[in-house]
Amino acid sequence: MLLNVDQCSTHLNFMDPICDFLYHMKYMFTGDSIKDQVEKIIFNLRPALKLRLRFITHISKQEPAAVPPPPPAPPINSGSPAPQANQVPVNVTLPVAQ
User: What segment(s) does the record annotate as region Disordered (predicted)?
Assistant: First the structure.
């Protein structure tokens, strides 16, 4: 029904409450039982609705452009902190209470 309304209208009023209601129905009643059918419908909706409904079927995980590259591996720690490029070495004698 939402797909028909989306395709036949230029502007959809009450988009946020409609999406909230669909999330409520999914989490309270259907779960993932109709995930495949819902995913196909959401894929054909206008971008504003896709954006609001992307977490119903976790479509955002399937878009390769949305996945950032993994961070580079950290260097092996030798036990002492490595000097940073923006740090200036400072030698300060601190008093020690005895």
Answer: 63-98
Rounded Cα distance, 56 and 42, in Å: 9
Phi, psi of 40 (to 5 degrees): -65, -40
Minimal CA–CA distance to 49: which of 17, 78, 88, 94?
17
**Alpha helices (H) in 1-98, listed in sequence order:** 2-8, 15-25, 35-43, 47-53
The answer to whether 45 touches 7, Cβ cutoff 8 Å, is no
38-63 residue pLDDT tens: 899 999 999 999 999 988 877 654 44
- How much is the pTM? 0.53
For the chain, the structural domain boundaries read 2-61
51, 4 Cβ separation under 8 angstroms:
no
